Amino acid sequence: MLRHCLAFAVGLSMLASSGLAQAPAAGPYKVLKTVKVGGPGAFDYVNADIEARRLYIARTGPTPRMTVYNLDTLEPVGEVPTTNLHGAAIDPKSNHGFLSSKPITMFDTKTLAPIKTIEVQGRPDGILFEPVTERIYVFSHSKPNATVIDGKDGSIVGTIDLGGAPEQAVSDGQGHLYVDIEDKDNVAVVDVKTLKVTAHYDLGGKGGGPAGLGLDAKNHILFVMCHEPQTCVILNSEDGKILGTLPIGRGTDNGGFNPATMEAFSSQGDGTLTIIKEKSPTSFEVEQTVQTKSRAKTCTLDTRNNQIILITTEPAPASVAATAATPPAGGDQAGAGKKGGRGGPGLLDILVVGR
Fold it and tell me: What is the CATH number of the domain that holds 208?
């Protein structure tokens, strides 16, 4: 996930100087609300628990913790202490949460109290709850590429070799899991009952470094958001056939699909959110490019309100920075470097995008 940061920064500078950066397009979506919250550290994934109305944001750096907010008001609810982490996955049936830390932190979603830690191999990064089997998938760029955990008791069910470095994953709710493989430019298909990879859908040179993923489960359509070229490659999820490509912004790191609006979306570090309209199962178009904020490259979907929530960091005001703790040696200020920086004083921006 993080290997694109330097290339992204250089590429964005070149685009800006040449006047080729993607211009925001007019449309129905806009930033409805921006909330600034404090605290040191950078960020990674953001996850919405729709039923419990909570928003989970991973804060990294010298004081790693999972910060939790009310999904409707964006007021703070609490924190889950942990080691360095990337994201959260919630099992709504057991009310258990899991953090992609090492070891994995399992916690009670009602009280936010830690339950136990789970030792895993690899380097936990992305994380997903799979509803059919009620299991948690923890993804790693190093082997094993996926560790599967029982959501009820936290036991390890098995591991999966995905054949490369996984980024985002989506479930069709029918027994299939789709995982974009960043370093191999394909999408792995996993049978969640057997824990076996049944296919790899190659992007055919249409897109490279896939990082974001959306799925229209009803019509069996995958939207694969790629770094180079800056493209959404659209596939048939049943056979991997390429249905088309569309341009997106630079620095994608998350994507999704909203079945209520029939729209896919991709959040990008260049400060844009690309909205793709599925007009029919064979017809697609870029509906809008929403101006967000620089480095707002991870997002989540609130399906109850049909809103997309993004996060980024910005430097704290001088008055805050002057009284904040000094960053660790070699650290940088929030907003610089990996995913909005690590360490020093900064403000986390939570952006709500909707109609």
Answer: 2.130.10.10
What pLDDT, in 10s, does the model give residues 136-182? 999 999 999 999 999 999 999 999 999 999 999 999 999 999 999 99
User: Strands of 208-216's sheet, edge to edge?
Assistant: 208-216, 221-228, 231-236, 242-247
Structure tokens at 179: 């995982």
pLDDT at position 345, please?
Answer: 55
Tokens of 303: 């399906």
Sheet arrangement for strand 146-150: 124-130, 135-140, 146-150, 156-160
CA distance 6 to 278: 33
For all residues of the chain together, what is the average pLDDT? 88
Q: What distance in Å separates the CA atoms of residue 334 and residue 175, rounded to the nearest whole number?
A: 40
Helix (H) / strand (E) element for 156: namely strand 156-160
- With H, G, I as helix, E, B as strand and everything else as coil, classify residue 183: coil
Give this prediction's pTM. 0.87
Q: What is the dihedral of CA 295, 300, 302, 307, to 10 degrees?
A: 30
Distance CA 123, CA 300 (A): 22
Residue 258 lies inside a defined structural domain of this protein: yes
Looking at the DSSP bridge assignments, the partners of residue 57 are: 46, 67
pLDDT at 19: 33
Domains contained in the chain, number? 1
Out of 7-11, 29-33, 183-187, least confident range: 7-11
pLDDT in tens, 230-239: 999 999 999 9
Q: Which domain holds residue 341?
A: 28-354
Report DSSP state, residue 343: B
C-alpha distances in angstroms, 284 versus 204, 235, 280, 281, 287? 19, 12, 7, 8, 9
